[in-house]
Design goal:
Pfam families: Sulfatase. This is Sulfatase-like hydrolase/transferase. Its cofactor is Ca(2+). Keywords: Calcium, Hydrolase, Metal-binding, Signal. It is a single chain. By secondary structure, this protein is α/β, with parallel strands linked by helices. It has a single domain (22-397), classed as Alkaline Phosphatase, subunit A (3-Layer(aba) Sandwich). It contains 17 helices and 14 strands. It has helices at residues 4-9, 22-32, 60-66, 82-91, 95-98, 114-117, 122-128, 189-202, 226-230, 252-257, 266-271, 275-301, 334-337, 363-370, 385-389, 447-454, 476-484; strands at residues 35-41, 70-72, 75-76, 132-137, 151-152, 209-215, 309-315, 341-344, 352-354, 358-359, 399-402, 408-411, 415-419, 425-429. It has an eight-stranded mixed beta sheet, sandwiched between helices. A four-stranded antiparallel beta sheet has the order 11-12-13-14, covered by helices on one side. Strands 3-10 form a two-stranded parallel sheet. The radius of gyration is 22 Å and the shape is globular.
């Protein structure tokens, strides 16, 4: 068996291996250290079949993966926005540590603060330990930081293709729109990304690999070919539970920082008869991206790497599809923070489900541990491998999601506690209120629960990074999100 020292030497040190031939060395290397395939889906909430998030969900390929590994039903993003969520995953650092609360250019991540200056991205950590690394599509927020992968297949700018004129919604600072377009799957960037990754999996690799494939849908615009809309007949569409005065009992700051006028409101969609059309379009977009996931999974299963590759699928955060009067992310409520997470270890032979609260921040240390690499001491997430062995095991942890400096949500198995920068609060008991319609923060019966949840709030709240495209708090979303959300909404 190859030693740790020999592994770190990589292929350049083969002459020092001794009796092992190069072929024997590489074979032993690949057997000892598993490959990693990471599948990333943009703006995916729990509308997948395996999570029973919505009755119209049709996601046979994601469901197939869930049947082969561990499905985490209570997984949450570090931030309810693409840029800071992905920066957190790839650095292994929380937004409250780095000050990356808004979008940031990928090459500026290490310039964001003292805490990120010496960070090693997840892909770089694997390459540092002898892995070949490759990526395509949306992995970080834009492209990828220079040198963070050995090979990068690129990503298309923005989130097209776009029709000459929007079908339903034509407001500045957002890509939001819905309707069938274009005609064929091969006109979609995600289709190209899936096939690029499939080609990579068909290649001969002489050392373990870490690969990441980032898909754009179901990020807006909800444009996919007609056949995916046909999979979800409009007469069968069910809209989510909706309460018109849902925000009656939330603090003022909650209403202000989650007011995104560039996107439609649910009441507008109801009045215009578009609610079911939007649900259909989002569902169609999810089914389309599921087919792209299937292309990559098929390629892996037909490759020589099928039995020695860990597969991980995650969404970068959730998305409101009408709940709380919005079609958006960028909130601290359940719909915007919760997202699918599936981890399939190498040689996994069955499905299991964990309802324990976990964070996407936990991915970095978990993948490192699964692959037998030394821990990165700078990681702030938790190793999830104990839950891979025992999904119902002892897990006395909570998950924190951050949206702007000193605005946090704490999620446990039963409760969601939100504390805003001005000290105002929300508390939801999911056992009795799964829709988060009743804020019980002021109810004396929950006083002890609230005190316990407060202990999970971050003790460090970094100032906004000067490299962030959105800066400052002062109800930041009212001004900076309206002025600068653009294609990154």
């Amino acid at each position: 068996m190859v030693s740790r020292r020999q592994f770190l030497m990589g292929t350049a040190g083969l002459a020092a291996v001794g009796a092992l031939s190069q072929m024997d060395f590489l074979k032993a290397l690949q057997q000892k250290y598993p490959n990693v395939l990471m599948l990333i889906v943009d703006d995916l909430n729990d509308w997948v079949g395996a999570m029973n998030g919505h009755p119209n969900a049709k996601t046979p390929n994601i469901d197939r993966l869930a049947q082969q590994g561990t499905l985490f039903t209570n997984a949450h993003a570090s931030a309810p926005l693409c840029g800071p969520s992905r920066a957190s995953i790839m650095t292994g650092l929380a937004p409250s540590t780095t000050g990356i609360y808004g979008h940031i250019h990928d090459d500026d991540i290490r310039k964001a603060s003292d805490k990120t200056a010496h960070s090693v991205f997840l892909s770089e950590y694997f390459r540092k330990h002898g892995y070949y690394t490759a990526a395509v599509g949306k992995v970080f927020h834009e492209d990828v930081p220079e040198g963070s992968f050995d090979d990068f297949g690129g990503r298309v700018p923005l989130f097209g293709p776009y029709p000459e004129k929007n079908f339903k919604w034509d407001q500045p600072k957002t890509s939001t729109d819905w309707g069938p377009f274009p005609e064929r799957d091969d006109q979609m960037p995600d289709y190209d990304s899936a096939h690029w990754m499939a080609d990579k999996l068909a290649e001969k690799h002489d050392k373990p690999f870490f690969m990441a494939c980032g898909f754009l849908r179901p990020h807006v615009p909800w444009h996919v070919p007609q056949k995916w809309f046909d999979m979800h007949p409009i007469e069968e569409i069910q809209v989510p539970a909706y309460l018109a005065d849902d925000l009656r009992d939330v603090p003022e700051i909650a209403r202000v920082i989650t007011d995104h006028p560039m996107m439609p409101t649910t009441q507008w969609a109801i009045d215009k008869g578009e609610y079911r059309n939007i649900v259909q379009a989002y569902s169609a977009s999810v089914s389309f991206v599921d087919s792209c996931v299937g292309i990559v999974l098929d390629a892996l299963e037909n490759s020589e790497y099928a039995d020695n590759t860990a597969v991980v699928l995650w969404g970068d955060h959730g998305y409101h599809i009408g709940e709380k009067d919005k079609f958006a992310k960028m909130t601290l409520w359940e719909r915007a923070t919760r997202t699918p997470l599936i981890i399939k270890p190498p040689k996994s032979h069955g499905s299991q489900v964990s309802n324990k609260p976990v964070s996407l921040l936990d991915l970095y240390p978990t993948l490192v541990k699964m692959c037998g690499l030394p821990a990165n001491p700078n990681n702030e997430g938790r190793d999830l491998t104990p839950l891979l062995h025992d999904p119902d095991g002892n897990w006395n942890h909570a998950v924190v999601t951050t949206y702007g400096a000193n605005n946090h949500a704490v999620k446990t198995e039963r409760y969601r506690y939100i504390r805003y920068e001005d000290g105002s609060e929300e508390l939801y008991d999911h056992q009795n209120d799964a829709n988060e319609w009743r804020n019980v923060a002021a109810d004396p019966a929950y006083a002890d629960i609230k005190l316990a949840l407060v202990n999970h709030l971050p003790t460090e709240n970094a100032v906004w990074s000067p490299k962030s495209q959105y800066r400052g708090n002062e109800y930041f979303a009212q001004k900076t999100l309206e002025a600068g959300a653009g294609e990154g909404n």
